[in-house]
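sry for the spam today, last one i promise. struct tokens for design, 87 residues
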């Protein structure tokens, strides 16, 4: 699903469904392609999942207003979506 809300400030939720248990990797990138944060890197059960991003990098530093990309990998399937942080 698309993140909600979008645009967001200060947090947004990324929701997804797993049809079967599997490995999930959910990462946030800036518009230039630099990886900022890994939100999920784990085996997850078959069910609905919702993960919140607080607009921070892995280091804890808050990011500025702009366009960000989240990349959701479930097994060999990859989904990429844009989101906008407006401060």
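last one done:
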């Amino acid at each position: 699903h698309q993140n909600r809300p979008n645009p967001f400030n200060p947090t947004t939720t990324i929701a997804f469904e797993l049809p079967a248990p599997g490995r999930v990797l959910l990462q946030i990138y800036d518009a230039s392609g630099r990886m900022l944060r890994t939100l999920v890197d784990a085996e997850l059960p078959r069910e609905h999942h919702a993960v919140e991003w607080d607009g921070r990098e892995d280091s804890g530093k808050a990011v500025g207003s702009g366009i960000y990309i989240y990349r959701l990998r479930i097994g060999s399937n990859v989904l990429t979506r844009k989101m906008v942080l407006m401060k």
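Residues 14 and 51 are 5 Å apart (CA to CA). ok im logging off now
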